[in-house]
## 1
Amino acid sequence: MSERDEAQGARSEHRATQRFARAANYSAFPLRLVLGFSGGVDSTVLLHALAEARAEFPLELRAVHVHHGLLEQADAWVEAARAHCASLGVPLQVAYVRVQPDGRGLEAAARSARLRALAAVPGDALVLAQHRDDQAETVLFRLLRGSGVAGLAAMRPIAPAPLAGAAAPWWLRPFLDLPKETLIAWARERGLRWVEDPSNASADFTRNWLRAEILPQLEHRLPGVRTVLARTAETMAEAQQGLDDLAALDDERVGHPQGGWDLAEFLRLPVHRQKNLVRWATLRLPALPPTHRRLEEGLRQAADYAGGVWRFPLGEAWLCARGERLWVEAAPQGCDAAYRCG
Ligand SMILES: Nc1ncnc2c1ncn2[C@@H]1O[C@H](COP(=O)(O)OP(=O)(O)OP(=O)(O)O)[C@@H](O)[C@H]1O
């Protein structure tokens, strides 16, 4: 390695450590971190960055690798992950999951199963290696599927775990503002080895098609578009925070002493705030938010409420009225009620 390479390596190591410290909002207390380690390039770089950060911070680092059992390479990936972690003295847990296709497609089912397995590992925080290009891709994908503000807020660098009852309360993404090419350059500088998931190359999945074909074309025409899309997520996250604050105020303003809302007071709110309040309350159950159309129909019917017990299905929740009260409650048969990260 030349002197120049060494200097570059040292600089990027320093940056990775600083980045981690910032993302973890790090102070001097010991932190038990669990890294979601797939063995791909991004999480391999993060594994090394965190392993090195142990020299500077009192970290307890463990890794978890989820074995989905879907591809013939899965067992070899486990072995590669074990070897990698052993070489750095990082304990590795392997979580074997069974992916149950549930009508949303195999990729989405695998993702849900993976999130559940990751959420089951105890620690102070789970650390994931998503980067700026993943963020841009998520924003574009969700835009094309008609997501609203909450969906377009995409991923946060520091966020509460998105699953109810997760064993690590915080999820950290220290690389979220770094382009993928920076991570690849880091890995090459260090001579790291990683595995390639062949399903990432399959254009059968819309996300892969966006990543491999559409985003490069957009970037060619509009240089910097990935950064623009990633910034959209930040703007939307702030907007969502404002909407949540408004919903919390409205919840208090029209709250009923027996829980839920006073129906007459609720109906005096402008319709867009009624919608915002019901969405907010649904997410806190927790349940997936209702579609716009269901929500509109539910609110239209609530406005015509004529007494008795009334219930309207909103996907994973019910909108209910009785007497002078209106409220939302979880639907017992909610298809996947604990999962709400979209
Ligand atoms: N099988 C897995 N086991 C443990 N963690 C995983 C696994 N797959 C993904 N992750 C974690 O979730 C993050 C996001 O997953 P995604 O599928 O978008 O990334 P990836 O393409 O697998 O990334 P990487 O280059 O790290 O492999 C990864 O960066 C990694 O931290």
## 2
Amino acid sequence: MTNETDSQGPAAVGLADVTKRFGTVTAVDRMSLAIRPGEVVALLGPNGAGKTSTIDMILGLQEPTAGTVDVYGIAPRKAVALGAVSAVMQTGGLLKEYTVSETVELTASLFTPARPVGEVLERAGIADIRDRRVGKCSGGQQQRLRFALALLPDPDLLILDEPTTGMDVEGRRDFWTAIREDSQRGRTTIFATHYLEEADAYADRIVFMRKGRIVADGTAAEVKSMSAGRTLRATLPGADQRRLASIPGVDSVDVRGDSVLIHAADADAAARYLLTETPACDLEITSRNLEDAFVALTSDDTDTSAYEGVLA
Ligand SMILES: Nc1ncnc2c1ncn2[C@@H]1O[C@H](COP(=O)(O)OP(=O)(O)OP(=O)(O)O)[C@@H](O)[C@H]1O
């Protein structure tokens, strides 16, 4: 695999056959991935799947044991030094005695050029607490402050490790609104999270990792339908259960009075059949949720070879 995307020059992030070992532990195992500029990508996986190790290599904090990592076609450390990349990590040194705005001003003095302090405070939703000491800020407010700091160099690539930990519902919504707006302007975002609903709602693309490997890669809808199929519900008086069960791609049919409930691996084919070959109406199609997919894709008895290349 090359690190080039189809037509737009280098990938924002390119991993080619990357392995990372710590002694006898293989944290990342021959992983290849190309992320296009402007994509918002969620990295999901159980504890120890290799998400942080992958992020650390993209940030140049760790070197791969084998393979290569590029950021906009150059070495990660170089990209970080140029201000093209910044990160919001789960924890990270904030000085408790400084106020929020002093913290941002101090960090801004390290970057030339930096975005204006007032602008990043607004963007991170902490302009109203600019004079509060960091030690008095809640966990969610400190996380917003880390976000403000990461915005200072106006990075092309933003890396977020559990970015919304400690934020309340409104804080999360504001945070993701800001991320989505910036992605419209071309900023690439990669985030690791255990909040599956955030990945579902805000990521263009979901990369599932398990034991250092990618086990699924696609949109939230693709990942969900891939692992679990979908459920169709329709009104169909006098439904012929056997006939419906024989539609290709249908796994099960349940007739309840005038309603039918169909579980299908190929929901589109089943829907087409219902609407063209029967008088079915009130058709609803629902996906299994991302948590079902997560459990199916990352459980110990899953044969991940079955998923390789399906969506990647
Ligand atoms: N510095 C290190 N030294 C030794 N082993 C490490 C080191 N860093 C990570 N590992 C191991 O590599 C594997 C992958 O860890 P990693 O932190 O990348 O997973 P993760 O997906 O980020 O997990 P979590 O969701 O718990 O943060 C784990 O088995 C971990 O114990």
